[in-house]
Amino acid sequence: MAEDTGRIEPDDVPADVNDEEEVTSIERHSLISSSTDPQNSSGKSQASTKSLSGSAFEQPIENGRRYANDDYFMPNDEAEHTRLAIAHQTFLLLLGGQLTLARVRSHVKRILDVGTGGGDWAIAMGECYPNAEIIATDISAHQPSSVPPNVVFQIDDAQDGWTFTESFDLIHMRGMAGAFSDWPAIYAEAFQHLKQGGVLELADFGAIAVDQQSPDSYISIYNGACQVAAEKAGITIGLDHLKKEWLERTGFSIVKSTIMDVPLGHWTPDPQKKIVGKMALISVLEALEATSLRLLTRELNWKAEDVKDLCAKVQAEITRPNARASVQCQFVLMRKLLIPG
Prior knowledge:
By secondary structure, the chain is of the alpha/beta class. It has 7 helices and 10 strands.
């Protein structure tokens, strides 16, 4: 069951991101088996040259959920904020308490978090690296007002073209499946805005699975319907956007792709994996309606009550004592090739 598409050794990790400690390599494995001021002289952060339109603040309500705009399928209401906070804790558990797979030096200068959500990752990085400027972007503003002085939040749609005037040591994108219709273009922007030797880190969860899953199970129906709706909407969900060829075609090198099989719930006998499983289960259950409601009602003309009914049935399947439900989580670490001289 193991798969690792390239280990990053200490000498391979970019100098501007490296730390002094040896990197911990997480192979593809199963969790189921046993202070610098970041402001310029004008007092304004060098984040981006973009200005915001009024539409950036219009937040429609559909079927009882609030959304950032008329396009993006995931909500941005309080329930979603809670889910994102739980997902952040899940990622921390999966990485053994670390915020990133990349080795980051204490004197790292600039870090970008694309699709920051509630800003948990960006705030934590700002606290860990007080001398770095952390720029965190999202299509809507729902981050806390009290943040470290070196963290800058910016409303920005990464699909509109990036206008940052300075390059980054590390660019981070997590939980962004379905966010963009043209992932190669996003990867090209990331490549352009990284320093030579800089790192792009991606992380996402795949589809839910259970033991002896049948084609007519509610989980199969849910996964299939969401996939069809996503294709109709022109987006990719799950892990489809983490394609090695897309990244390498852009110019990135030294691929490290790590896939973890994460249990959902406390059915695994290992105590540590039980902790991960409980947190992951909460995150996944909260994501069922969030992921499907707008997709299925808009793209497949489902009624909202039918979507919610399906989500309830999926939840019942996942939490059955003998379900042994799981989900894959994939991390991809890419480096911008160093140019000699």
